[in-house]
Amino acid sequence: MRDPLSYCAGLVRTGDHDRFLSALFAAEPARENLFVLYAFNLEIARIQDMVSEPLLGEIRLQWWREGIEAIYTGQSVRAHPVLQALETSITQCALQREPFDILIDAHAKDFAAEPPASLQELEGYADATCTGLMRLALEIMGVGAPDEVIRHAGLAWALTGVLRSVGFQASKQRIFLPDDLLQAEGLTRERVFSCRMCPELRQVMLTLSGRAQLHLNAMRRALPAPSRQSMPALLPVTLASPYLQQIQHPDYDPFLVQYPIPAFRRQTRLFWAMLRRKL
Q: How confident is the chain (279 residues) per 10-residue block, as mean pLDDT?
């Protein structure tokens, strides 16, 4: 039987299942345009896992910069299914160019040998990537939201993602935990790269998860009842709470195989959030 999903939707279903589930709550054509946006984000974010050295990563990022340039200047778009779909979505939704440029430029930090120097620097990266993506998703839905709300939602979701990826990143000899938090606990990068849980790493993760929770709380205070039309764009952050609960559990170990929250539980949480208009 032929898969009814488009190429972009299939890509997101495989590589970013939480955003895939959230986009399903949008009506067409917004749903497909969300899939296209999230597929573009996946293409950019996974470059770091596809290259062996920073220069190759920058070359790939430049390819996408030139692709975005071609779309916005009316030039011929290269034969790539995501880029071609993105041209249609940008035209249909009149999406602003600046968030795309900022997002691509921010991902150049993915190839840095050093971790973010501070929590502030990490949040700057998260604002350029995750928050920028939410702004574009809201544009697709044809609605706006207070900038304060979008920023808190994007930072909460991004910091949760950093925490969930600690084990995977360490296995690749990479680290996105802020250096100032590591130093405050006397934790070296080498100990993180050893892929063994320790009290110092646990404290760093609890500090960062607490920061993510603060952003969640601030978002909910600022926007207690989002509009129904804006919900699909903001909905992924609803799943931050159960992920943070996992991370904050005393037995959590980022270097052990983590059993994911079943899809039906995530779907149920998203459904009730949509029904009650509460993030």
A: 76 97 96 98 94 91 96 94 96 96 94 90 95 96 93 97 95 94 95 95 97 97 93 96 95 87 94 94
Which structure tokens are listed for 90? 């940008």
Count the neighbouring beta carbons within 10 Å of the beta carbon of residue 186.
8
240: Cβ contacts below 8 Å, ≥ 6 apart = 156, 157, 160, 212, 216
| DSSP, res 249 | S
Q: What is the pLDDT of residues 62-88, one digit of tens each?
A: 999 999 999 999 999 999 999 999 999
Domains and CATH numbers, the chain: 1-112 (no CATH), 114-259 (1.10.600.10)
Q: Can you tell me the distance from the alpha carbon of 30 to that of 26, in angstroms, rounded to the nearest whole number?
A: 6
- Whole-model pTM: value is 0.95
Nearest CA among 240, 241, 246 for reference residue 260: 246
Q: How far does CA 156 lie from the centroid of its chain?
A: 10
- The pLDDT, as a whole number, for residue 1 is 37
Q: Which two tokens stand for residue 77?
A: 């778009």
Count of other CB atoms within 10 angstroms of residue 2:
4
| pLDDT of 3 | 57
DSSP secondary structure code for residue 194 in this structure = T
Handedness of CA 123, 118, 164, 51 (dihedral sign): positive
d(C-alpha 193, C-alpha 113), whole Å: 13
Are residues 141 and 229 in contact, defined by beta-carbon separation less than 8 angstroms?
A: yes
Non-local (6+) Cβ contacts of 131 within 8 A are 150, 151, 153, 154, 155, 158
Q: How many residues does the chain have?
A: 279
